[in-house]
Design brief:
The protein is α/β, with parallel strands linked by helices. It has a domain of about 240 residues: Rossmann fold (3-Layer(aba) Sandwich), CATH 3.40.50.300. Helix content is about 25%, strand content about 20%. It has eleven helices and 14 strands. The longest helix has 16 residues. The protein starts with about 30 loop residues before the first strand and ends in a 15-residue tail after the last strand. This is Plastid division site determinant MinD. One of its GO terms (molecular function) is ATP hydrolysis activity.
Length: about 375
C-alpha cells in the first residue's frame, strides 16, 4: 500500500477536470488527481490563485515531483500545483438526453443518497433539468437531505394507480426550479407486488414525454443490497455511478455490484471514492485511491474527502454544495458533476514531494 499525503479534491463548479487537484498533507508521498481526455482545452487560470480551504492551506510555493505522463519522457518534472477554473464557459453535455444514471454501491451507508442529492443540485446549478428518483421504497431519505420531506403529498404509486398526475407527484425545489424529486412510495410502506423494473421504466418513459420537455438527467437513488429493489432501480438506467469507501467490506460489495451491472447491460460505470482521510492513508491505515482504482478497475469520477460538514448539512436538509463558503467535499462534488456532464474521468497518480535541502549548521538558519 502506497502511503499518501495528498488526496484529490475539487475546485468548484466549472472547474476543469484537467487541472491538478490537491489537498495537501505533510507526507513525502501521495496522490494527485488529474483529469484524463481533455487536456487540450484552453484553461483560464483562476485569478485568485489557489482556493483556500482546510486542506489547501500552505500549498503556495511548494514544488512537487510528479510521476505521471511527464515521467514517460525520461525526466522528472517539478510542478507547482495551481487551481485551474473554466469560469468562462459551462460544461458541454455529452450523450443522448435524458441521461438515466443510477447511483448504487451494494453496501449501505457509503453515501449514495448524499451523492445523489448533491450531484442533482450541482447539475441544476449548471442549468440542466434534473429529476431525482428515490427508488428506496421502505427507507427513503432523499427528501430529508433536500429538505423536501414536508412537501411529499403524492408519490409514484399514486401515479401508477391513477390517483394523481405525474406532475403532481413531482416536487420542485424552490431554490433551483429545474430540480425535481419523485418518491416511489411513502415511508413505512412495503414494496407493492406489482411494482418492478417495468413500472420504473414506464415512469422514466413518462418523464421523457412531459409537455414541458424532457429532463437532461434522471438520477435514480438505488437502495442498498442486491435484492429486488436493486434490480428494479437499475432496470431503466444506461449509466451507473458506483459509490464506495476505501475499506475492504465496501470494496467487496462494489466488485459484486459491478458484475451485476455489466450483466444487466450497463457498461458505462464510473466510481466515486467517498470519505477519504489523507492522515490514515499516510499512516497506511487506509487504502489509497490508487489502490481502490486498481482493485475495481473502473474509471474514477471523483474523490470526496471526509468532511464533518456533510453530517451538518444532512441534519439541516440543506445540500452541501449550496454552502457558502464551500467545503472541500462540496467542491469535489461540484467537479464530479462537471465530469458527469462531459463523460470525463480522473486519474490517480503517485507523486513524490521534492526533498528539502538540509543544512550542516541548522543553528545558522538552515533547514533540516
Amino acid at each position: 500500500m502506497a502511503a499518501s499525503g495528498i488526496v484529490g479534491a475539487g475546485f468548484g463548479a466549472g472547474a476543469s477536470s484537467a487541472g491538478v487537484q490537491i489537498s495537501c498533507g505533510s507526507g513525502s508521498r501521495g496522490l494527485v488527481m488529474i483529469g484524463s481526455g481533455r487536456e487540450e482545452r484552453q484553461l483560464a487560470q483562476n485569478r485568485a490563485g489557489l482556493i483556500g480551504g482546510g486542506g489547501l492551506q500552505g500549498l503556495k510555493g511548494r514544488q512537487l515531483v510528479l510521476r505521471g505522463r511527464e515521467s514517460e519522457h525520461g525526466r522528472r518534472c517539478r510542478v507547482v500545483p495551481q487551481a485551474l477554473l473554466q469560469w468562462n464557459r459551462r460544461p458541454e453535455l455529452v450523450g443522448e438526453i435524458p441521461r438515466v444514471v443510477v447511483i448504487t454501491s451494494g453496501k449501505g451507508g457509503v453515501g449514495k443518497t448524499t451523492t445523489t442529492a448533491n450531484l442533482g443540485m450541482c447539475l441544476a446549478r449548471l442549468n440542466f433539468k434534473v429529476v431525482a428518483i428515490d427508488a428506496d421504497v421502505g427507507l427513503r431519505n432523499l427528501d430529508l437531505l433536500l429538505g423536501l420531506e414536508n412537501r411529499v403529498n403524492y408519490t409514484a404509486m399514486e401515479v401508477l394507480n391513477g390517483e394523481c398526475r405525474l406532475d403532481q407527484a413531482l416536487i420542485r425545489d424552490k431554490r433551483w426550479t429545474n430540480f425535481e424529486l419523485l418518491c416511489i412510495n411513502k415511508p413505512r410502506y412495503k414494496m407493492p407486488l406489482g411494482f418492478g423494473g417495468k413500472a420504473l421504466t414506464w415512469l422514466v418513459d413518462a418523464l421523457k414525454k412531459r409537455p414541458e420537455g424532457q429532463p437532461h438527467f434522471i438520477l435514480i437513488d438505488c437502495p442498498a443490497g442486491i435484492d429486488a429493489g436493486f434490480i428494479t432501480a437499475i432496470t431503466p438506467a444506461k449509466e451507473a455511478i458506483l459509490v464506495t469507501t476505501p475499506d475492504i467490506t465496501s470494496l467487496r460489495d462494489a466488485d459484486r455490484v459491478t458484475g451485476l451491472l455489466e450483466c444487466d447491460g450497463i457498461k458505462d460505470i464510473k466510481m466515486v471514492v467517498n470519505r477519504v482521510r489523507s492522515d490514515m492513508i499516510k499512516g497506511e491505515d487506509m487504502m489509497s485511491v490508487l489502490d481502490v482504482q486498481e482493485m475495481l478497475g473502473l474509471p474514477l469520477l471523483g474523490v470526496v474527502p471526509e468532511d464533518s460538514e456533510v453530517i451538518k448539512s444532512t441534519n439541516r436538509g440543506y445540500p452541501l454544495v449550496l454552502k457558502n463558503p464551500p467545503t472541500l467535499a462540496g467542491l469535489a462534488l461540484e467537479q464530479m458533476a462537471w465530469r458527469l456532464v462531459e463523460k470525463d474521468s480522473m486519474k490517480a497518480i503517485l507523486i513524490e514531494e521534492a526533498p528539502q535541502k538540509r543544512s550542516l549548521f541548522p543553528f545558522m538558519g538552515g533547514k533540516n
